[in-house]
Here is the input.
Amino acid sequence: MKRVGIYTGSFDPMTLGHFDIIQRATQIFDEVVVAIGEGRGKSPLFTAAERIELIETACKPLKAVRVETFSGLAVEYAKKLGGKGVLIRGLRNSSDYNYETQMAQMNQALAHDVETIFLATSPAYSHISSSLAKEIAYHGGQTKLLVPPVVATALENKFKVRSGQ
Ligand code: ADP
Here is the structure.
């Protein structure tokens, strides 16, 4: 049976930390689905369509990566994809660990057959988050050490448009 890894998240926008997890996941799974959650109560900087395009562009060199959006529970989405879907999450530090283990245990309670695996972030990326990348871009700082080149350009353009430059 094809092994499918499902990497869920907001990806607003994708960072080098996310890219690293996706790349490593492609070594483990036959296919990696990057699943953008259209969550409740979040007001994203990038639309879902923009986030899909950025991830697809950044992941072009990788084989067997698909990008989709989903709404609702991740476990229901995993079941809908069929096969033996495994949720992938990245762990940067102890606060990710605390939050993510609770989430994985809750998901196990909701659906026994949907497993979660954690990949520890590569040390070079453990300080990176989408929100900090946005904050830095907002203040006109360089983000090319934090996000893929296509995302750095998109962040620059987004804040240029917003400030009417
Ligand atoms: P969410 O809103 O679900 O936290 P994110 O897009 O922020 O969505 O993160 C998606 C997943 O990627 C989470 O498991 C998160 O811990 C992980 N992640 C975020 N940043 C990094 C990073 N720099 N290195 C490794 N994993 C990361």
Q: What stands out?
A: The CA atoms of residues 6 and 64 lie 12 Å apart.
